[in-house]
Design goal:
The chain has 151 residues and is an alpha/beta fold. Helix content is 26%, strand content 44%. It has three helices and eight strands; from the N terminus they run βββββαβββαα. The strands form two sheets. Strands 1-6-7-2-5 form a five-stranded mixed β-sheet. Strands 4-3-8 form a three-stranded antiparallel β-sheet. The protein is globular.
Length: 151
């Protein structure tokens, strides 16, 4: 497994498994990102809760963050990242499970009002993503998509 960040000796990390969707627009030239009011960008998705499956987590997060119904597709990969959250004041080992994902419907808007859906070109998305393992996943998804288009 690919691991990003540095594990500091003597620090207790909280394992935080999550599921994230990589959503391309119809023209396959932009990707969906979640922007937050504090100026950070993430892939749609988040942490697993209460024994959820990957699909259940992604569907819940899609409703909460961007007001969309998400359909999980092909698995892209898994990566981890050691980081410190200034918001929570905790050290985490975030584990991302990444999937190609499609928007299959809408709900009455996101319930997390500080989250916003934005479409970004790939290079801009990769530069703006807050988490390094999410940047890696977008690069891997682009490679998979381009290889499939070449077939």
């Amino acid at each position: 497994m690919i691991i990003f960040g540095k594990k500091d000796a003597g620090v207790q990390y909280i394992w935080r498994p999550g599921v994230y969707g990589i959503i391309f627009n119809d023209n396959k030239d932009q990707i969906a990102l979640v922007s937050t009011d504090d100026g950070k960008y993430f892939l749609p998705g988040g942490g697993l809760e209460n024994g959820e499956s990957h699909e259940e987590c992604l569907v819940r997060e899609g409703r909460e963050e961007i007001g969309k119904i998400l359909s999980i597709g092909e698995w892209v990969g898994k990566a981890q990242r050691y980081f410190y959250s200034t918001k929570d004041e905790q050290h985490y080992l975030g584990e991302g499970n990444f999937y190609f994902t499609h928007i299959s419907g809408e709900v009455d808007g996101p319930t997390e009002i500080d989250h916003h859906l934005e479409w970004k070109e790939f290079d801009t998305a990769v530069v703006n993503l807050f988490h390094e393992h999410q940047r890696w996943a977008v690069r891997k998804a682009l490679s998979i998509m381009r290889n499939n288009l070449a077939l």
